[in-house]
Amino acid sequence: MTDAKSYNIRSILEEMQQEYWQGLTAKDEAQEELLECITFVLGGEQYAFETSFASEVIRVPKLVKLPGNSKLVVGVFNLRGEIIAAIDIRQILGVAELPLSASARIIVIKGKNFTTGILAEAVLGVNSLSLGLFEPIVKSVDPSAREFLRGQINLGTEMSMLLDIAHLLDSPSLVINN
To answer: What's the DSSP call for residue 43?
Structure first.
């Protein structure tokens, strides 16, 4: 009788071990489906991109305007000894250029070849977004902006557009006076 009890305990322990490992595998798969994004406002609309590109968020400093540059470059600023161009991508995305308030921020992003700052009307925070919830863009979007968007996601009462920030940073429209 003691052998039967020990056999049952072993099988129970083996089942528990299998369930434990299956639970760990399921958690890993669920984590792979999440995309950590910084969400912000442009033209009164929500946008997001992966936090891996963002190095920091700062208040809008004094911007020095440079003559002869495109409208995208709103000025340059000094960030701890590094001169960085601040760009306004609202024109590229075809959204309204609303006046900036005290909640305006610059999201400092690092591309493969350079560092720049994207002007945002407000930064809402960092969210883990499920890739499975992203939908194709059905909202009426400026056709020239579509190439920089990966999809859209419903975040409660607002729709947020996921930017393809890597593609945007490689865009010829961001090249400044070659």
So the answer is: T
Q: Note down the domain range covering 20.
A: 1-32
For residues 137 and 153, state if they share a domain.
yes
Are 42 and 122 a contacting pair, CB within 8 Å?
Answer: no
110 and 80 assigned to the same domain: yes
Tell which residue, 177, 160, 42, 168, has the closest CA to residue 106: 42
Same-domain check for residues 38 and 62: yes
pTM above 0.90, yes or no: no
Contact 123, 109 (CB under 8 A): no
Give the tens place of pLDDT for each residue, 37-74: 999 999 888 999 999 999 999 999 999 998 877 788 89
- List beta partners, residue 161: 47, 152
For residue 105, give the H/E element and its range. Answer: strand 105-110
Beta-carbon contacts of 38 under 8 Å, excluding residues fewer than 6 positions away, are 48, 49, 50, 51, 54, 57, 107, 123, 125, 126
Of 120, 111, 129, 122, nearest in space to 31 by CA: 129
Give residue 112's identity as a one-letter amino acid code: K
CA distance 163 to 170: 13
Owner of token pair 């161009």: 85
- State the Cα–Cα distance between residues 163 and 161, nearest whole angstrom: 6
